[in-house]
Specification:
The complex is a heterodimer of chains A (111) and B (112). By secondary structure, chain A is an all-beta fold. In chain A, 0% of the residues lie in helices and 62% in strands. Chain B has 112 residues and is an all-beta fold. The chains are: A mainly beta (111), B mainly beta (112).
């Protein structure tokens, strides 16, 4: 089956720093989502991005589907950005949709 | 607007027992999916339901079952609980079966 790899696994930043999180996937996908999991476990939607670039405030994402990777950029990081970031590829097969998640990048932003 | 809601938020069960978890999708969403997240890992797909029918199933044993009701809410049932079933169970809803998924806050199940 398709493999989803995220890097780095852990990241420690000082407040105000910028960072880039990477998601590689091993096969063609229908779509891709980025999530932020807060300390209470909820997955917060960041981007739904099959290809191209999207921006939302200090966050932006780029997916290059032909090269099978996506990048999440966090600029001017804040302590509230701490948590785990997941990318999930979306596969539509056999009449249903499922997300296949990477193992996540654990981000800690210190003041 | 209310997001995806799950109940209960936390649950402790004994090995061998049965558990039912509940999920209410975003208003207007017709598809509900269930995921299991073991500590330190990404969520794993269990089921997708669309228009009250099971449309897809992940690699989970038959002890796991689910259903979707006419109002599109859903229940996940797990029988004969094992210690390894301890996890965060996440419900996701989407407008149709192929659209962006939105997750609830999860139910944290502990099996002792």
């Amino acid at each position: 089956g398709i493999q989803v790899e995220q890097s780095p696994p852990d990241l420690i930043l000082q407040e105000g720093a910028n960072s880039t999180l990477r998601c590689n996937f091993s096969d063609s996908v229908n779509n891709l989502q980025w999530f932020h999991q807060n300390p209470w476990g909820q997955l917060i939607n960041l981007f739904y991005i099959p290809s191209g670039t999207k921006q939302n405030g200090r966050l932006s994402a780029t997916t290059v589907a032909t090269e099978r990777y996506s990048l999440l950029y966090i600029s001017s990081s804040q302590t509230t950005d701490s948590g785990v970031y997941f990318c999930a590829v979306v596969l539509f097969s056999g009449g249903y949709n499922k997300l296949i998640f990477g193992a996540g990048t654990r981000l800690a932003v210190h003041p | 607007d209310a997001g995806v809601t799950q109940s209960p938020t936390h649950l402790i069960k004994t090995r061998g027992q049965q558990v039912t978890l509940r999920c209410s999708p975003i208003s207007g969403h017709k598809s509900v999916s269930w995921y299991q997240q073991v500590l330190g890992q990404g969520p794993q797909f269990i089921f997708q339901y669309y228009e009250k029918e099971e449309r897809g199933r992940g690699n989970f044993p038959d002890r796991f079952s689910a259903r979707q009701f006419p109002n599109y809410s859903s229940e996940l049932n797990v029988n004969a609980l094992l210690l390894g079933d301890s996890a965060l169970y996440l419900c996701a809803s989407s407008l149709y079966s192929r659209n962006e998924a939105f997750f609830g806050q999860g139910t944290r199940l502990t099996v002792v």
